[in-house]
Amino acid sequence: LEGAMLVNPYDIEGFSVSIAQSLGLNQKEKTGRMALLRRHIRENDIYRWVADILHEIGAVLDGKAETCCPVFDHEPEIQERLTGRKLFLFFDYDGTLAPIAESPDQARMSGEMKSLLVRARDKFPVAVISGRILRDVRERVGIEGIVFAGNHGAEIWDNGKTVLCPGSASGRKELQELLDALRKALAHIRGVLIEDKGLTASVHFRMVDANDLGNFFHLFNLTAKTYEDLFRITSGKKVFELRPLQAWNKGDAVAWIMDTLGGDRMPLYVGDDITDVDAFRAVRERGMSVSVGECGGADYFLKG
What pLDDT does 8 receive? Predict the structure, then answer.
């Protein structure tokens, strides 16, 4: 191994080949160990680790002014609050009903989750509130007899009719301009996914290489800054959400659904991301909220 240690420490391939030669490994063993080493380096890249840590810190700081409690440490209290109450159940989709996926089209509910949702619908009114477009979330859930809200609450579907929030069509021209500018600015960065949802938009960076994240954040902020007086721009789980200032948020959607359909029922909202905080606050006075992962604004949280 003495000879191997003389190799440039940044030359991973040269280093591994020298070790292989010193150990007397055959070509097949060399290839196998090289593949393992490459995978280890790829999966434990320091830039990816730092980026993930900073993202989690940012998510925590976004809502730390309001803390929540672990569900399983407060079961008697929760049971007491729910006993004898008629409930209206609200669920986010991505990260709540379906696991977060590399790209939005891969996020699917499990068969078990779908069965649970059907059982819940048979006992209580149920609504699914999503950042996805209305048609997409309805198709992914695929259960009749549920109220749906898409585009973070800007469009609501109930019993065969669609309700659009006031002024939903305004700002479309400016949103298109912003998306065109972002496509141009970020075109050279691999892994960026710009999702135009009509009333709102999302810029996903989950698949962006960690080494490119700094440049991505810089260019995104530089481009979006020009439009900050027109759009509410929030960060979620490796995504930026772009919403016109006048568009309804998830809290507005929950309030409309409760006022229109809720009667004297108690709303229980379950969500996982920054855009769900508006809904957590909307149910605070008359209901209960649970976040998947610790998120400011919710009454209680589940670890996963």
Answer: 46
**Do residues 181 and 221 make contact, with C-beta atoms less than 8 angstroms apart?**
no
What distance in Å separates the CA atoms of residue 210 and residue 90, rounded to the nearest whole number?
A: 35
HSE at residue 33, side-chain half, CA atoms within 13 A, is: 17
Q: Which residues of the chain register pLDDT less than 50?
A: 1-10, 63-65
pLDDT of residue 63: 47
Is the CB of residue 239 less than 8 Å from the CB of residue 104? no
Closest by CA position to 184, among listed 192, 208, 91: 192
Which pLDDT value is given to residue 101?
Answer: 86
CA atoms within 13 A on the CB side of 137: 27
E strand segments, 95-200: 126-129, 147-150, 155-158, 161-164, 193-196
**CA separation, residue 245 to residues 100, 131, 150, 201, 248 (Å):** 26, 15, 16, 13, 8
Please give the structure tokens belonging to residue 40. 């280890």
Q: CA 96, 100, 104, 108: dihedral to nearest 10 degrees?
A: -60
Residues forming the active site: 92
- Provide the sign of the torsion angle of the four alpha carbons 153, 127, 239, 186, taken in this order: negative
- What was the pLDDT predicted at 3? 44
For residue 147, give the nearest of 239, 232, 269, 275 by alpha carbon. Answer: 269
**Distance, CA of 38 to chain centre:** 29
Q: What is the DSSP letter of 299?
A: S
Which residues have a Cβ under 8 Å from the Cβ of 80 and sit 6 or more positions away? none
Question: Do 250 and 230 meet the contact criterion of CB atoms below 8 Å apart?
Answer: no
Strands 69-70 and 300-302: parallel
